[in-house]
Amino acid sequence: MNLLQSIKKRSKNYFFSGILIFVPLVITILVIKAIFTFLDSLLLPYLKPYFGYWLPGIGILIIVVMIYLTGLLVTNYIGRKFFQIGENLVLNIPLVKSIYGSVKQIIETFSVKDNHVAKKVVMVQYPKENVWSVGLVNGEIIHPKSHEEMYSILIIAAINPASGFFIMVPKREVIILNITVEDAMKWIVSGGIITPDTFKHLKTHKN
Fold this sequence. Notes:
This protein is α+β, with helices and mostly antiparallel strands. The chain has helices spanning 3-51, 58-74, 77-90, 94-110, 181-189, and strands at residues 121-125, 132-142, 149-156, 164-170, 175-177. It has a five-stranded antiparallel β-sheet, with helices on one face. Helix 1 (3-51) crosses helix 2 (58-74).
């Protein structure tokens, strides 16, 4: 390898190393900025008349405080009862019921609760044999005819985690992965780019 080729190779490596740092950083900044702008625009028309001025980013601060206070309220007995009454009223409204129920189920699926089943990350042959998909176990059922134990599994769509497929698979055909739900979500949403350390066993061969 001559000097020119060596310089080209090193320049190429430096460039791609810079991309790996620069692109995620820029995307993160843009996403955070979009969130700040969106939350500010939601609260600005209602709160600015009272304050007389508006500090950028105060919207997300108010939302965080509201979320915390709501969590504090519903964790005690009286607050939880009032919340259940309000939720029952919401669930009696046809269209609102569908939207609220779906969003709540998705959030509960990804939340870290005490339900050990919901924390299982699995690999199953889907949509056909020898094609593997990663999913989350949401429950366990018994097949109505064979009485075989099965997992209820949510196969999350890559790039767009708000969509996916619900399947039921016999336990014997499921491989339980030793990774967290957070790692699984990074893996899926990135389209396989962010691979958990458990699966990083292939070495890149240098030419």
